[in-house]
Amino acid sequence: MPTILVEVMPKPEILDPQGKAIANALPHRGFTGFSGVRQGKRFELSVEGEVTEELLESARAAAAEMLSNPVIEDVVSVTVAEDQ
Amino acid sequence: MSEFNIDTVENAGATPDTDLPWAELGLKQDEYARILEILGRRPTAAELAMYSVMWSEHCSYKSSKVHLRQFGEKVTEEMKKDLMVGIGENAGVTDLGDGWAVTFKIESHNHPSFVEPYQGAATGIGGIVRDIISMGARPVAVMDPLRFGDIDHPDTQRVLPGVVAGIGGYGNSLGLPNVGGEVVFDSVYQQNPLVNALAVGVLKHEDLRLANASGVGNKVVLFGARTGGDGIGGASVLASESFDDAKPSKRPAVQVGDPFAEKVLIECCLELFHHNLVEGIQDLGAAGISCATSELASNGDGGMHVELTNVLLRDPSLTPGEILMSESQERMMAVVTPDNAAAFETVLSKWGVEFSWLGEVTDTGRLIIDWDGETIVDVDPRTVAHDGPVYERPYHRPAWQDQLQSAAFRTSAAAKHLPATAEELGQAVVELMSSPNMADKSWVTDQFDRFVGGNTALSQPDDAGVIRVDDTTGLGVGLATDCNDRYAYLDPYRGAQLALAEAYRNVATAGAVPLAVSDCLNFGSPEDPEIMWQFAEAVRGLSDACMQLGIPVTGGNVSLYNQTAGRAIHPTPVVGVLGKFDDVSRRTPSGFQRWADGQAIYLLGTTADELDGSEFARLRGHLGGQPPAVDLEAEKTLGDILINASRDGMIDAAHDLSEGGLAAALAEMSLRFGVGSRTSLHELCERDGVDPFTALFSESQARVLVALPRSEELRFTDMTTARGFPALRLGVVDAESGGIEVTGAFADGSFGISLDELKAAWSAVLPSRFGAVEG
Predict the structure, then answer these.
(1) Staple partner for B71: which of B264, B335, B479, B553, CB 3.0–4.6 Å?
(2) Residue B353: closest CA among chain A residues belongs to which residue?
């Protein structure tokens, strides 16, 4: 069953409190060498059958209008992952 | 280090003819001319950024200043008695006794909440809380007066859930109880929601801090979150002024808040105060570093020298002008003596708060800001912070005002077929209580933590939020915010007084002695003389009423330009009143108690035919006429009665009559704990010369319902008689009936409303529009 993957990230110029908290925590656990962290999110939209261009377009629209908040987030990618 | 050219003071002197984007930054031609005159040369890009943002309406109060002066002028010595810090600082401070003081303030975050409801409302809480911290106080509670468009409008569907989640997300994370506020729906707020936020904090007298930079040689430090490109959307035009087309030109107009960073900042600041490590402190809100440096300097020894490249950045591509204007959240600026610098650093390291030393206090009378050693700002800080433009905007009474005021409800088509029989009146009460504005608001308030901290003694839906300050004595404060925009639209002078009267009454109804006022004045465009008249009238009304009630305005905020597509909101002067309890365990709750079966119900005050602007008129789609009469002397006497009755333990429940009149008050007192009542309107109608419909739905002021044990009736009525205040026994609390029964001069006997049915209708309104609460 194919899956459409949508990746959303906070806009680069916007504060990302989660990423900041992780960045602060990393060295405490001994993970050094990372100068910053930003945390986004990934959506997996399952599809019964084939992913048509129409369906992909619908996923893009959903990504832009609903899965992301266009004021503070960017849709980074909308891709198709085939059966694992 | 810079990827862009820097417009230095030297460069500005050498290139007088460079065109600057002053108009794009919102400056008027004459304002720009004044900057040229003040500096004697063209401003640098950084100076222009500072002046433009500090001279904006939001920061300079340039349209409202001439009117706001009345809050400082109409003050008696008596009113100043408990006032430790008045208007002009981050928030006013009032003495509570026993070495305690309290500070509170209300602000608007309307526009950001419209653009991005969650973050806008969240950062509204963050900003007002930092105002409280910067006075040296520990924040103890917040409140949110909210106004949205029509409940069924799609924009309300978008804005309300985000705003509510944002307030909860930020306030709950900070561990601050949200103890009240308002939720109002009206189509005038479509595309222009009002998101006001109030915070209250407590401090010991010796912890009081002010925003000034005194002591030459003292060090200036910026601490908290790093500076990013937040909230400088409008300033992006400066990017082109940095002569570098390659850099990102689009900056976000919104800020994202981090409540956990703010929580750490609160504790860190309180420890700094405890060890007396800061001389002056200021939070960074609107206008960011521009505001903090110019205000600290001009309130202190008059000078400051700062190296801007020392500011810790989240985004290294920011230009100096953008750094000066950034509204990144969770930042503070402080002045520290060189001797305390090491101890200061120790406290900040303990809390894991980042900081950077920016410069020092001077006595030169100049605010000098360098970029990598080159001077980019050289100004008299007073000209930035205090001597901005002041406008005497023209104003006049709108031509339509007379017509509006003569369109009374009684004579309108909406008043045909008013409910008269018992059955019709009973139905009207249910219809009223299931209208959006009277309906149960717990869909909203259940998303806020009301009891965190363990010091909440009363909260929504009681008349006031009550917070214990000292758990050894029970010393505490009561707070209420109110405004009826419909009254204010009909008559802004009286409407503002009515807002104050209601907040005062609510605080007294809970049993607190009213002490101080904070106001958030939400209006349309000051460039419209009719709106400006509304504003002028509201300020005049509020300041007159404060003087009469003897409680001072200690601070607040003005929000103008609340209009969309040329349509302004109703004038909305939201008034917050703070009162004092010697012991919060004496507070009076608003609902009939189950154990209080058979207690007597008294109505205090008199009822006139005042339905203009009422909730009943709203049900019939009518808005016109004259708002209810204001009688501040009656409010004072009523307040005294309620405070004494609470202190002496005479009454077990009290609820003020406001929107929806007696009908709403009776319903709300029963809905609170599901305990019914039996009352009669006979005597009331006869004494006041009104019909049962008017008795139920009129919104006459200075009225309160109380419930008291029969053993206290005599003592209580002796007190009201001694003060010459009308009190009438309406009936009794009935814990068994499960309903509200009202008799009166109706042809068909009495009406009874089942509490189960009323509750179902009343509590279904918000969930039916907004669905399940999203966690």
Answers:
(1) B553
(2) A24
3-state secondary structure of B228: coil
Q: What is the pLDDT of residue B236?
A: 43
Residues constituting chain A:
84
Which residues share a beta bridge with B155?
A: none
Task: Please check the confidence at residue B167 and state whether its pLDDT lies above 90.
Answer: yes
User: Which residues of B are known binding-site members?
Assistant: 61, 105, 107-111, 130-131, 255, 283, 327-329, 519, 556-557, 559
State whether B230 and A21 contact (CB < 8 Å).
no
Measured CA distances, B514 to B85, B464, B501 (Å): 17, 11, 11
Please choose, from the candidates B572, B411, B545, B400, the residue with its C-alpha nearest in 3D space to the C-alpha of residue B486: B572
| CA–CA dist B161, B436 (Å, integer) | 15
pLDDT digits (tens, 9 = 90+) for B655-708: 999 999 999 999 999 999 999 999 999 999 999 999 999 999 999 999 999 999
Looking at the 3D structure of chain A, how many domains does it have?
1
> Domains, chain B, ranges and CATH?
9-64+209-385 (3.90.650.10), 588-765 (3.90.650.10)
ipTM computed for the complex: 0.73
CA nearest B698: which of B628, B621, B746, B601? B628
Tell me if A15 and B329 make a contact (CB, 8 A cut-off). yes
Distance CA B210, CA B190 (A): 39
- CA atoms of B616 and B143, how far apart (whole Å): 27
Q: Residue A66's closest chain B neighbor by CA?
A: B158
Q: What is the pTM of this model?
A: 0.92
CA–CA dist B443, B456 (Å, integer): 20
Given a contact cutoff of 8 angstroms between Cβ atoms, the answer to whether A1 and A48 are in contact is: yes
B606 CB-near residues (< 8 Å, 6+ apart): B687, B688, B700, B703, B726
Q: Can you read off the two tokens belonging to residue B763?
A: 């509590």
Exactly one of B67, B109, B305, B655 is catalytic; which is it? B109
pLDDT digit string, tens, across residues B2-59: 456 788 988 888 888 888 888 888 889 999 999 999 999 999 989 998 999 899 888 8
How far apart are the C-alpha atoms of B156 and B165, rounded to whole Å? 14
Residue with tokens 């303030």: B105
Report which of B600, B639, B603 is spatially closest to residue B511, judged by C-alpha positions: B639
How many CB pairs below 8 Å do chains A and B form together? 46
B534-572: pLDDT as tens digits: 999 999 999 999 999 999 999 999 999 999 888 999 999
Tokens of B91: 């928030």
Decide if B58 is catalytic: yes
C-alpha of A18 from chain center: 14
Q: Determine the angle formed by the axes of helices B661-673 and B422-433, rounding to 10 degrees.
A: 70
Kindly tell me the burial class for residue B73, based on how many C-beta atoms sit within 10 Å of its own C-beta (0-12, 13-18, 19 or more): exposed
Q: Per-residue pLDDT for B88 more than 80?
A: no
Out of A12, A15, A69, whose CB is closest to B230?
A: A15
- How far is C-alpha B190 from the geometric centre of its chain's CA atoms? 20
Closest by CA to B576, choosing from B182, B185, B204, B195, is: B182
B153 catalytic? Reply is: no
Q: Report the CATH number that the domain containing residue A10 is assigned in CATH.
A: 3.30.1280.10
Q: Quick check: A15 and B315 CB within 8 A?
A: no
The domain in which residue A60 lies consists of 3-81
Question: Token match 């305690």: residue?
Answer: B100
Taking CA B16 as the corner, what is the angle to CA B15 and CA B21, rounded to the nearest 5 degrees?
100
- Residues B104-130: pLDDT tens digits? 999 999 988 998 899 999 999 999 999
User: Which residues on B lie below 8 Å from A72 (Cβ)?
Assistant: 116, 119, 252, 254, 256
Token pair listed for B465 = 């939020």
Binding residues of B for substrate: 108-111, 130, 255, 327-329, 559
Closest CA relative to residue B550, chosen from B629, B632, B468, B478: B632
Smallest CA-to-CA distance from B177 within B127, B142, B125 is with: B142
Q: How far apart, in whole angstroms, are the C-alpha atoms of residue B552 and residue B745?
A: 45
